[in-house]
């Protein structure tokens, strides 16, 4: 069944989009990530312009992170104070990200920036996850004890001033690294159409030593607010949010996530991380190949918006 | 700009000169539908233009082999064309040209190849065919239409053609009788809304005889159009509604699939 996407200005098969939503939802439910890093590239690969893909996927992530955040809230697994400080940074980063997005778009360099950032970010994070989880699996096979992480130990981050006590997470921490992480995630998320969970969670665990009990819930709150905020900002500045596309993706996403979560419980966490690492790396490599091979089409036509 | 002005003046003079000629033929044409409504299910349609060549007492009796060129121009838009080049091992958009107020839809139909029905000079003067249609570019502050072989112009026309928005068909005009003709105007699903002008030019033995104009309008209706309009006109409201829709979907999902 064909349906016309009003903003993407493109007829698409509704079941293809719904299927992509379900597939990405499945992956996101399985690994506990938003899935934006998969969905945005998929939309770009089927011919939706990067600008519309990024802006619309932010809506999809807002939906999936809200349903996640609600269930963590019921379980009291969110640190409100930590979430609040992260959000101040996150909102700032989002504003900066959307501004850069608008600026790059007017100079015709948005597509390249999105592709390059995906290459760097996904290859880096994917590679690191792969390395770390493969090591863990090998150690487990050899019967060695897993290397002990010492959540109580301090690093340079804990020497920074202006400390605040985050009661729920039981950590005493300077607000600067928290703000900085918020800014970074908001900024990257607005430009790339990703919630950033796959970067945020490791940062919270390894840099800020946030305990695992509150880390996922708190990160979902940040994702939710920055994504909902960037939907609104993208709608105001670039008019590239396709609500119809976003709605189909959301519906597919929340359904897929339920099955994914069940499937995820059957696999060990090292294997999960290994699979996720492979997946992230694959998307990064796909973008890298795209950039370096000679494109079939050397030209691109974009209509300038009236008044632009 | 000066060059363009000169062209306009020349065209005006030419038109005036032609008007004083005894015009033996008259063109009458009409489209099957003056208002095309595009609904969400629309997947491309065809509009039919019918017309007739009216001869009168002044018409040279041996003049019967007529040629017609029909040019359909859609609403005007300014478009940017980017070219990629390899820099530091990756392909990036390096240079761009701005095409000013060019038709978003441009279709040229004739009854035989345009090269055969008029001289190169006439083709250029009458802007016959995609190659002779003036597409003004801004090249670093200067305004000009360049030669048809210009890579940006060629790429622009090619890309628009791929989307079915620019086309040149040399056998689309069918003569039902020696003086009665018919043209199908295909309108793909991506066709932009607005007013479309149809310019019909009559030639005989390579000379321009007369022309006529008609127009039609394309409007989009339905939910999609409403969404697109709102997004453009009322970004804040649209963004808030979309965000709210996302939250509602998320909340519904958490209620429906609640496990605890």
- Total helix count of chain B? 6
SSE-based structural type of chain B: alpha+beta
* Uncertain residue ranges of chain A: none
The CATH topology of the largest domain in chain B is: Immunoglobulin-like
CATH architecture of the largest domain in chain B: Sandwich
Class computed from helices, strands and strand pairing of chain A: mainly alpha
Strand content of chain B: 35-45%
Number of structural units classed as domains of chain B: 2
The two chains with the largest interface, and their residue counts, are: A-B, 62 and 56 residues
Brief summary of the model shown:
Chain A has 308 residues and is mainly α. Chain A has ten helices and five strands; from the N terminus they run ββαααααββαααααβ. Chain A has one domain.
What would your notes on this structure say?
- The complex is a heterodimer of chains A (308) and B (260).
- Chain A is mainly α.
- Chain A contains ten helices and five strands.
- In chain A, the strands form two sheets. In chain A, strands 1-2 form a two-stranded antiparallel sheet.
- Chain B has six helices and 14 strands.
- Chain B has helices at 2-20, 114-117, 120-125, 151-162, 223-233, 235-256, and strands at residues 25-31, 35-38, 45-55, 66-73, 76-87, 90-103, 106-110, 137-139, 142-144, 166-169, 173-177, 180-187, 194-204, 207-220.
- Chain B is 28% helix and 42% strand.
- Chain B has two domains: 22-221, Sandwich (Immunoglobulin-like), CATH 2.60.40; 222-260, no CATH class.
- With 260 residues, chain B is α+β, with helices and mostly antiparallel strands.
- In chain B, the strands form three sheets. In chain B, strands 2-14-13-4-7-10 form a six-stranded mixed β-sheet. A four-stranded antiparallel β-sheet of chain B has the order 1-3-12-11, with no helix packed on it.
- In chain B, a hairpin with a 2-residue loop joins strand 11 and strand 12.
- At the A-B interface, strand 1, helix 3, helix 5, helix 8 and helix 9 of A face strand 5, strand 6, helix 4, helix 5 and helix 6 of B.
- Strand 5 (299-303) of chain A pairs antiparallel with strand 5 of chain B.
